[in-house]
Specification:
The chain has nine helices and two strands. The protein is mainly α and about 190 residues long. It is elongated and about 95 Å long.
Length: about 190
Amino acid sequence: MIAAGTSDEARSEVESLTIMPRGDRSETSASVRGQMVGMKNAGCSTAEVAANFGVHPNTVLKWVRRAREDEDLQSRERSGRPRCTNIEDDERMHQAILNEPLRAGGAAAVKRELMLGCSNETVRRRLRERGIFHRQPARKPFLTPEHKARRVRFAETYVDVPQTYWDLCIFSDEKTFSSDADGMVKLWRPTLTR
């Protein structure tokens, strides 16, 4: 509800703002902050403004107070641990993975090879920021009707070949037998790629 005595111009401006539900916890943009301050200055209650933008009433009060104090609606610098890698390190990690996606050893191998002074988890986090994940490779596709037709053609072609011909052939079903030293193969891949 808009307060009584609000000018028609301010009323129409407030009514033109659409309700913007915010289910996520992302930061409000400077333009949204300005709209909240504008609605409050136009006579809307704090609860109305908060409901309109899907934020807590304290958020509205914070931006109104900040607008009055220093007229700056930009985010202030936050405290927290600084990043232990720089842009060049992040790019080197990215290029190393693009050049060798089947690299054994995962994040530890990347860290060791590039001599990075960060944890293995930081390497994984930096690559995830760029959309690259360490995953098990895609499995081989099942036989298609075309594959099956080719196998039948092969059998029909060689059905009358003498036994001496087949004595010189070795067939394999492509099964890999490995020792315990060989683990599961993983590779680095961007999302939605095989």
